[in-house]
Each structure stands twice: as structure tokens, then as C-alpha cells.
Amino acid sequence: MRFDSPGFRRDALIRLGIIYLEMIGLGAAFAVCLAGPAAADAVPFACSILPGEEIASIQMTNSLASDASCIVSCRFSTIKYDNNPQITCAKAVPAGKEVEMCRLTSGGDKFVKLVEGNADCLGLSGRNEKGPG
After folding, report:
1. The dihedral sign for the CA sequence 23, 29, 32, 34
2. Which of 84, 113, 117 has the alpha carbon at shortest distance from 102?
3. Which secondary structure element, helix H or strand E, spans residue 116, and what is its range?
4. Alpha-carbon gap, residue 124 to 133, rounded angstroms
5. What is the pLDDT of residues 37-77, one digit of tens each?
6. Buried b vs exposed e over 59-95: b needs ≥16 C-beta within 10 Å?
């Protein structure tokens, strides 16, 4: 293909357009990083193995002064080598309330111990407290 052919110019313009779009995307990503993510607050939580050792329960308390969207993850070890099931639960939790977020079954292998866990809540702002109507 020759440099002065219409096909070459079209391909060059397409490549320049793609580079331009990539630069815009990088700029937007950089701007988001500068603005910072929405701050989530760490909250009290418990990942418990229930009697029988085949079911785990995840409980957490929304310690914020307002209703919040909360997420909890817990990973457990089992009696089977390299079997570490993880449960992740997310839902809205009323202010100051302790709730059971969810339960996880072991799939037949008994749970041994909690390997790791974390929980965060992000306050729900702008909600109409009176409800609809």
C-alpha cells in the first residue's frame, strides 16, 4: 500500500482516532483517581461456623448513624486440602442494627476455621426517609 493512497490515509486516521480515545480514557481514569473513591467505613462483623460444622453464618452491625449498603466477605478452610470456600453478602442494613447477612454451606466438607474476612458499609445518602407518597 502506498503512503498517498486513500486506504492508507483512512487506516492512519482510524489509528489516530483509537489513540485519541485511549488517551481520553486514561485521562478520565486519572481524574477518578484524583477525586478518590467513595469512602466506605469498616464495621463490626462475625464469620461463625455453626454447630455441625457444615454451615457458616455471617453477621454484621451497621455502626453508622444512617442506613447503609454493606458488604461482607468471609473465607473458610475445610477438612479437604485446598478447599477454602468464600461467601460474600451485600445488602442494605438499617442504622445501628445487627443482622445476619447470609449463610454458606460447606458442600459436604466440614468447616475448620475462618481464614480471612472483611466488611464495609457505605452510607446511603439522599434517601427519602418518609418513603413514597
Report:
1. negative
2. 117
3. strand 111-123
4. 20
5. 455 566 899 999 999 999 999 999 998 889 999 999 999 99
6. bbbbebeebbebbbbbbbbbeeeeeebebebeeebee
List Cα–Cα distances, 2 to 6, 13, 15, in angstroms.
9, 15, 17
Fill in the DSSP letter of residue 22: H
Residue closest to 111 by CA, chosen among 76, 87, 81: 76
What's the rounded mean pLDDT across residues 16-23?
Answer: 58
Contacts of residue 102, defined as CB under 8 A and 6 or more positions apart, other chains included, come to 58, 87, 89
Mean pLDDT of 99-128: 86
pLDDT tens column, 79-110: 988 888 998 999 999 999 999 999 988 888 89
